[in-house]
Write a structure and sequence with these properties.
heterodimer, A: about 700 residues, mainly beta, seven-stranded mixed sheet, six-stranded antiparallel sheet, 9 helices, about 10% helix, rod-shaped, B: about 300 residues, alpha+beta, three-stranded antiparallel sheet
């Protein structure tokens, strides 16, 4: 039994160790650094190169004595091109390709895939054809000249605009992405590889990522010619040639720091780290540290190399992201790249989402005794349901009108104000009516959700910030009455109409002359009046704002808008301007006294009843009355018409004085509002009604 | 001895003289007080009694009779400390509008004995007073052409909207017009419709809304069926052109007519014409020229 177990272990280990994946010539090596999506485009950037091909434009000749002859330049035009294909999953013949053929020198690998900025000298390393037999490693010029081969200018940056994608693919199409590369040395494009990305950023209404990150928790390091160095990049920890960095490869020799050798094409399992973490790589515990200088260099804290070297875990990093407490070896694996082992090829869906342009619904002032119209039209809006999507048009119109009359009134008199708002809304199909009833019902339901129902709409439609002659009134002061034409509230292809009218509430003029308003009460409708103050003189200003006129919900207006910061319907509120009436004194007259004191517009005048208006016209309120002869006779016979007698003795005087202490002269409570009889007279015997006054 | 009788005689004369003085002092001093009080209290009580609700609705002056009587009595009493005799205050023919009051205060001084004979002395104060609006042409001499005729002829033009139903391409209606509010004032009389003419078509929702707002303020709605305005009307429902307009108007009181006149319905406009066959109602506007006479207030 034990033998079988050992055999299994050996087999497993052999399998593990022999799990070499040799990268063959023509294989596409790529790494996507960044994918961002927005409402405008999807941008993909990174680097790519064709394994075992020459990519650089210039090759320096290295002489036999080791010097570099920069004068002798053999140009071998790199000519790298990277292309990304966006392909319809259901129809592979329908695709959109873009090629990047620019020179992007952000990504440069030498033959050992060192990152350029970390090399001490440009063009330092060379490949000694004579000493190294593996001509397959890096193909350069085939002659015997000492040449250096580089992978340079490997970056790509490709962007597909939403507009391009929508022009090519229809709404809701599933798309997969592929990548391929070309260079002059290889002479052709590689095969297409599924494009895998570590992650993406951003979001879009038009591009939906249906399969995204290919991170599955593991990555493969392709360690072709990879070297592990210490963190200061001075000593090669491991060199596949057993070299140390003494400035010359002629002194290559294994060092004491060797951990393990990486053979060509070895894949080391690992993980792209976002935090410091520890993983097992081929059975070895490796800590990955964040903030490695990259790309293509990874910081490791090798804990256990599997060869008996005791190495502790790295638990802390310094400001540069390097492991502080790595009792093992902090190593930089450079000259390597990763291949995502997750199976997700990048898949997206393009959404042909038509949205509404932001409208400015009205212009000009909103004045009293005038009208103003508001309009918002959305010519194309994509509406999606689980039964499908379609494009609709929405039209909304509103008219505000007002009447303020009369333009001139005596102080204490009343005026009328009426404001009416008339709103219509409807929608229709842009590309014809769908044949499926189920689909139409689903669209209808979506459209219905875009508008406020009748109750919500009419309760939100308000006259606010109401001020009458500078005094503020609550939103509930004015009475409001609304009606609609469609009890079912459907507005497909026909106008759903709502009309509301606002006016002053019912009022009562009390006997003492004050006015009491019953907030919001309908009364006589628009015939209800608001009464000015008896002391008023000058312009009486009416200020108000009308709001809530938009029947489309605020959420819908924003989500259907092309501009995410504004609703497409715009501002459906307004403020009344130039609403004034002229008030002139007719009872109380401020400043009529001449010295700033209050006086009256009328005069009090003792008269001679036989000649009440000597040598002049009777006054305004007397002229017509006095022109009637019988009225003149009545005046002359005044003292034959006794109406009241007040008999005052000391007791009556005392009683009345006591009454006076408890009742103000301007108190009208004693007067019956219907009969105009005084209870002071009725309930006491000191005043007697005579004749017809009884 | 005779000196003592002389002394007694002087004393008696003094008493008689003092009585006479007291008598006339009471009469004259209290009478002046009473008249002054009467005048002042009458003014205050008339102002107290102004019917403010009536003024708010009409702009005209009116007093409430019993409020005047009550307040006059209360104010008069308040100004009195002690009466030696009973007061009688008599109120005659109080006119509420235009405001006029007539008061007589009977102080009832009672019996006085002078030199052995007793007489009754009754002193009364009387006052007639009015409240009056003074106009531009109130204080004109009799030689002035405005004496006896202080009114000035004026005009006011108002636009009204008609929304009649169409029957077989034609329409016909009668409007009972309300007097424009600006003409409801104490200094305006002889209000008449002087002219009516067609003022144009209505073609926009905006103007339709204005027409609907104006309806209840401009017309006496005779039929209870149409008392409440329907604001839910769209301009597309209307025929917006009219033709063959015939206009008639009538002011109640001028002659007998087919129009039913009463306290409310005094001014009528009748219009007939043609409009489109495809719609059930039409809308247009007409202009009314109101003529009236105005007794101008002093500025």
């Amino acid at each position: 039994m034990k033998k079988i177990l050992y055999l299994v272990i050996i087999l497993i280990l052999s399998f593990a160790f022999s799990l070499n994946v040799n990268a063959a010539r023509g294989d596409l090596i790529y790494e996507v650094e960044s994918v961002s999506i927005s409402d405008y485009n999807i941008k993909i950037s990174g680097y790519a190169f064709i394994h075992r091909t020459q990519n650089y434009a210039v090759v320096y000749k290295r002489n036999a004595d080791g010097t570099v002859d920069k004068n002798t330049i053999v140009k071998n035009n790199g000519g790298q091109k990277v292309k990304i294909r966006v392909e319809d999953v259901d129809n592979p013949n329908n695709y959109l390709e873009k090629v990047y053929d620019d020179v992007d020198d952000n990504y440069n690998f030498y033959y050992q895939m060192f990152y350029k900025s970390f090399t001490a000298t440009e063009g330092e390393y060379y490949f000694d054809v004579g000493t190294y037999n593996n001509a397959e490693l890096n193909r350069c010029n085939s002659d015997n000249e000492y040449t250096q081969c580089y992978y340079e200018d490997l970056g790509f940056n490709i962007s597909f605009s939403v507009e391009e994608l929508l022009n090519k693919f229809s709404d809701d199409t599933k798309l997969k992405l592929y990548i391929a590369a070309y260079n002059n040395d290889y002479g052709k494009y590689t095969a297409y590889y599924e494009l895998k990305i570590p992650m993406y950023t951003g979001k879009s209404d038009y591009i939906e990522v249906t399969r995204g990150e290919a991170r599955s928790g593991n990555v493969d390091f392709i360690a072709l010619n990879a070297i592990l160095r210490n963190r200061d990049f001075t000593i090669p920890e491991v060199d596949i040639y057993g070299c140390s960095d003494s400035g010359s490869y002629s002194n290559c020799a294994p060092t004491n720091y060797s951990i393990y050798k990486l053979n060509e094409g070895n894949f080391i399992d690992g993980t792209i780290i976002t935090t410091n973490s520890t993983f097992s790589i081929n059975g070895r515990q490796v800590s990955f540290l964040r903030n490695t200088r990259g790309p293509r260099m990874y910081a490791l804290c090798v804990q256990d190399d599997g060869y008996g070297h005791a190495i502790n875990a790295c638990s802390e990093v310094d400001k540069k992201g390097y492991c502080i407490d790595c009792s093992g070896k902090v190593m930089l694996a450079y000259g390597s790249w990763i291949e995502l082992t997750g199976t997700n090829q990048l898949e997206i869906k393009i959404k042909d989402l038509k949205k509404c342009d932001v409208t400015v619904p009205s212009s000009g002032a909103l004045e009293c005794n005038n009208s103003k119209t508001f309009n918002s039209i959305c010519n194309e809006l994509t509406v999606r349901t689980d039964k499908g999507s379609t494009v609709v048009k929405i039209e909304q119109s509103g008219t505000v009108s007002s009447i303020l009359t009369p333009s001139k009134i005596y102080a204490g008199g009343g005026f009328n104000l009426g404001i009416t708002y008339y709103n219509t809304i409807k929608w229709s199909y842009v590309n014809g009516v769908p044949s499926s009833q189920e689909f139409r019902d689903a669209i209808e339901e979506q459209m219905q959700r875009k508008i406020k129902d009748y109750e919500e709409y009419t309760s939100g439609l308000k006259i606010t910030e109401l001020k009458l002659d500078g005094k503020s009134y609550d939103d509930s002061f004015l009475a409001k009455k609304c009606t609609t034409n469609n009890a079912n509230d459907k507005y497909y292809n026909k106008e759903l109409t709502v009309s509301c009218v606002f006016y002053f509430p019912e009022s009562t003029i009390l006997q003492n002359g004050n006015v009491s308003y019953k907030y919001g009460a309908v009364g006589e409708g628009i015939s209800n009046k608001f009464y000015t103050d008896i002391n008023d003189n000058g312009n009486f200003k009416i200020e108000a704002k009308i709001s809530g006129m938009d029947r489309i919900t605020s959420n819908s207006s924003k989500s259907d808008s092309k501009d995410k910061t504004k609703g497409w319907t715009g501002d459906w509120s307004d403020t009344f301007e130039n609403c004034t009436i002229e008030v002139y004194p007719l009872l109380v007259c401020p400043d009529c006294g001449g010295n700033g004191g209050m006086s009256y517009k009328f005069i009090y005048r003792p008269i001679d009843i036989s000649n009440p208006f000597p040598n002049r016209n009777p006054g305004i309120n007397w002229f017509e009355w006095y022109s009637i002869e019988r009225n003149k006779d009545r005046l002359e016979n005044t003292y034959s018409e006794l109406q009241y007698v007040a008999n005052l003795d000391n007791k009556a005087i005392a009683d009345i004085k006591k009454y006076n202490k408890e009742h103000n002269y301007l108190d009208w409570d004693s007067i019956n509002s219907n009969t105009e009889k005084s209870s002071f007279i009725t309930d006491n015997d000191y005043i007697v009604r005579v004749g017809g006054n009884q | 001895m005779k000196w003592s009788f002389a002394t007694i005689g002087v004393i008696i004369l003094g008493i008689i003289g003092a009585s006479i003085i007291i008598l006339f002092q009471n009469i004259t001093t209290n009478n002046e007080n009473d008249y002054y009080l009467l005048k002042e209290i009458t003014e205050a009580a008339m102002i107290d009694a102004i019917d403010v609700p009536y003024y708010r609705e009409t702009g005209n002056l009116r007093i409430v009779k019993e409020k005047f009587v009550e307040n006059f009595t209360r104010r008069f009493v308040e100004s009195t400390v002690f009466v030696t005799n009973d007061y009688k205050i008599k109120f005659y023919d109080i006119i509420e509008s235009p405001p006029k009051v007539s008061i007589l205060i009977d102080t009832g001084l009672g019996e006085y004995t002078v030199g052995g004979s007793s007489d009754e002395y009754n002193i009364a104060n009387k006052l007639d007073a009015i409240l009056e609006y003074v106009g531009e042409k109130t204080y004109v001499p009799s030689t002035n052409p405005n004496y006896g005729n202080p009114y000035v002829q004026q005009k006011l033009i108002y636009t009204y909207y008609a929304i009649p139903g169409i029957n077989d391409g034609s329409f016909s209606f009668v409007h009972s017009l309300k007097v424009p509010t600006v003409l409801i004032a104490p200094n305006v009389k002889n209000i008449k419709i002087a002219d009516v003419k067609f003022a144009g078509n209505v073609e926009t929702q905006e103007e339709l809304s204005l027409a609907l707002l104006q309806r209840e303020l401009s017309f006496n709605i005779i039929s209870s069926d149409f008392k409440s305005t329907n604001y839910l009307q769209d301009i597309s429902e209307f025929s917006t052109t009219v033709s063959n307009i015939n206009i008639d108007f009538y002011n109640c009181g001028s002659s007998t007519s087919k129009y039913k006149c009463d306290d409310v319905n005094k001014y009528f406009v009748s219009i007939a014409g043609n409009s489109g066959y495809d719609k059930s109602k039409t809308i247009f506007k007409y202009e009314v020229t109101w003529s009236y006479e105005e007794y101008e207030f002093i500025d």
